[in-house]
Amino acid sequence: MKWYGGVEAGGTKFNCIVASDPDHILAEIRIPTTTPTSTLPQVVTFFNQVQQDHSISLASIGLGFFGPISLDPSAKDYGFITSTPKLSWRDTAIVPFFEQNMHLPVAFDTDVTAAAVGEGLWGAARGCKHLIYITVGTGVGGGVINDGKPLHGQIHPEIGHMFIPHDFSKDPYAGNCPSHKDCLEGLVSGPSIKARWGQPAESLPADHPAWDLESDYMSYALANLIVSFSPQRIILGGGVMKIPGLIEHIRAKTISKLNGYIQNENLIHNTEEFIQLPGLADRAGTLGSIALALSVA
Amino acid sequence: MKWYGGVEAGGTKFNCIVASDPDHILAEIRIPTTTPTSTLPQVVTFFNQVQQDHSISLASIGLGFFGPISLDPSAKDYGFITSTPKLSWRDTAIVPFFEQNMHLPVAFDTDVTAAAVGEGLWGAARGCKHLIYITVGTGVGGGVINDGKPLHGQIHPEIGHMFIPHDFSKDPYAGNCPSHKDCLEGLVSGPSIKARWGQPAESLPADHPAWDLESDYMSYALANLIVSFSPQRIILGGGVMKIPGLIEHIRAKTISKLNGYIQNENLIHNTEEFIQLPGLADRAGTLGSIALALSVA
Questions:
Q1: Is B79 on the interface with A (CB under 8 A)?
Q2: Of A7, A171, A297, B74, which is most buried, counting CB atoms within 10 Å of its CB?
């Protein structure tokens, strides 16, 4: 059996894993995101310790990182975190660090693209060539697979910062995105819900008006993604999406907003399949990084 | 010299061309869009006449069509117009018709994707691997090239039907999209401008408030396309985009809305290059269909 190392690197923690696939997970660890010189060596130590403890050799490493990151293999800064607001991580060489310290092939992408790759390989989008993974938590991000391959464009998508209709008479909250105020992230993220209603998302009851707003905004975003990318499936991950009943509202409102214009049989007649929670649940990110690792092993 | 036949097929007219490239155009004709049994044979007659008159043989045919169309080569209805509101064209076999009547290789895509391919090959996006072509005229449509290839997803993009912020206190017009009212097309198309202001776009002076609204909506759409696809270039075609000064307003507002979040050097420092009018001008569609034809010759 081949083993791979995976890292889901977020703003507060690095979730690290050694696995072959979702049914064969050897070890997992959570390392706090502090500074590159502290956090990155701890990841290497974890991978080396697991190799030693289990007498295995990793075949490759997959990294799903917070961004923005440089994904152009021909660029001088390929494999770097670039202009992130987390200043100590700005312009940090990630891929070179792991190549030099692990002497293994390294796959690198955004955290949300890793999750999309994992959901496409093992999760709720198995067999789909065109899929989108969206996470709604502290922030909002999205990864796109088109024709079986991660879509990067010149940099990579930043879907969380899409602009959507915001009816101030219904929702006077200004939005909390530091760059755009009421972009998608500024209206639907966990912190925006807490700021708007004075309590965290998970403490709001199912009949709270928060969920009508949240599903309304999310369905605008999904409609926009559907008319832009024509995906076969959309996976909704992240803490906020765990609220019971929320995805059902989002499904219904997405269909209602598109109003029959997009004649996609599966979207219209099998919306529960088209719009889903992650099949890999809380491991969408870490197992996604293992799925990335497979592609370079 | 190799010659190709191209068709830009729209709801009111089929623009047909025989050319090698933008510098070598042998013949052009405009055929009204009536019914398939009338319009399609006229296209074949034109191509055959040009071949006879000039003693040439076409190498292939490129078709850029109004949609929705079926682009999945494995689908039973590949090469068909599918659920179009133009009833006489619904479920019409386009590629089979040209294959059977011209006995030539046929390339098929949406009209806007053809224009995107042409702009990437010969026009204002030469050398770009990631580009988007948007047309704003009777309707609004968009074609996307990612990694050098037309992006289709499961069906194809319908970018004109994206939802964007609509401030009713500033613009009480409800929008005229039959499916979505105030989606992008419902707010910025030529007919929506005429319906809102009571006179056609081309008769409104440069300082008319119409252009502040138009550039505002278009810049929301461009910002959304930039955060979604991370393109290298966006080309703005169609009749409405010819209004003097409009593209300058759109550029400035797009940069302002993104507010520095997308650290794309060319977007920020060279916006006049990033957001452009079609280099092929009114032939973006027809020469785009020639560019499609090249890919199958």
A1: no
A2: A7
Q: What is the ipTM of this complex?
A: 0.98
Q: Would you state the structure tokens that stand for residue B53, as one six-digit string?
A: 């008159």
Look at A164 and B164 and tell me if their CB atoms are within 8 Å.
Answer: yes
For residue range B34-63, what is the model confidence (pLDDT) as tens digits?
999 999 999 999 999 999 999 999 999 999
Question: Which of A 143-202 lie inside 8 A of B, CB atoms?
Answer: 144, 146-147, 149, 151-166, 179-180, 182
Contact criterion met (CB < 8 Å) for A166 and B165: yes
Nearest CB to A263; choose among B82, B147, B229? B82
> For residue A85, what pLDDT band results from cuts at 50, 70 and 90?
confident
Instruction: Indicate the pTM of the whole model.
Output: 0.98
